[in-house]
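Researcher: Excuse me, tokens okay?
***
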Amino acid sequence: MAEPEIVMQLPGMYFPMPWRTHRKVDLLEKQGLGFMERHGLCQGPGRRERVAGTRSALFFAGNCPEADVERLQMAVDWTYLMFVFDDFVCDEEAPEDAFSFLDLAVRIIRTLESPTAGLLPPENPFTGPVIDLAERLHSLATPTQRRRLVDAHLSWYLGVAWERAARQQQLTPTLNDYLYTRLLYVAGFPTIAWFQVSQLDDIPDTEINFPAIHALTEMAGMVAALDDDLFSYGKELWHASRHPPTTGPILNLVDLYQSYDQCSREEAQRRVVALRDRILARFTEVRDLVLPGAGQPLRRYLSDLTCLIRGNYEWGIGAGRYTNPDGRHPGAIKVTGTVTDSPSALGPPEDIPCIGWWWQDMGSL
């Protein structure tokens, strides 16, 4: 294998939890790749390798290590599918017109609500797998779980619509604007909604909507989003170097810190790590405050949120999605990092009010 074109050496990152994986990870991977093959999404040169390189089974096996296998398989299949969707509808290889994305997004939303809606065109490659997932979702999930999953997709697609428009306008957002919209378009909310689908019992509305639980959901999603910014920055640089005439500012917190503070890449990475360490330390504090009053479904959910933070790191540090940026250059990017047992910073950030409420007193369940 050729030497990597870009090497991303990340600062030490705080993780106060071990890495755990589902004991059926190999079965989840086998069945997930089978799902993609049945629907024709592994066809073409290098396509199966690119799909397998997303390591989607490992991703969800690390998020929900105690989940029901049949329910978790839906989440794994969705992840394999949505990485392809992200590449060809949302990101680098997507058409530029806004309507093509929004048209498909609203059709997917309605199909998740009603698998027989008949809105997805037969020739679209996503039609078969989306209907397949929707039918299984209606067979296995509760109405509450389905509603929460659909609502989470709405927030994701809203964020993607913003991201696409921002890229086309070559927008350089403020840190405050970026972090809130990143929380939407990173797809953290639908990912986390699958946590609820993966267990048999509903989390009561009074618990899932409690301010501290909402904050914990956002904090876990934000830590994962910031870690993804660290993993994906090399990929962003790789694409930008090949398409400079049409590439605006990179939508990545590492790049934004460099732009606003005129600092080096290494210093910008340290600032991203300091921010995610602050958030993770607060997550741990709030989680430990609410755990004593949580019912069993909520306790499982909080465990999965905790696992997401470490599982996302162990998945992302070596995912082909970041090391093989277009599916045709394996090893073009190398990402390395280390894990530490203490945060590099504590307390609320002063310049990001959109997340400041996470440090407020939220009471206990």
Q: What stands out?
A: The mean pLDDT is 93. Residues 211-242 form the longest helix (32 residues). The CA atoms of residues 31 and 98 lie 34 Å apart. The two ends are 54 Å apart (CA to CA).
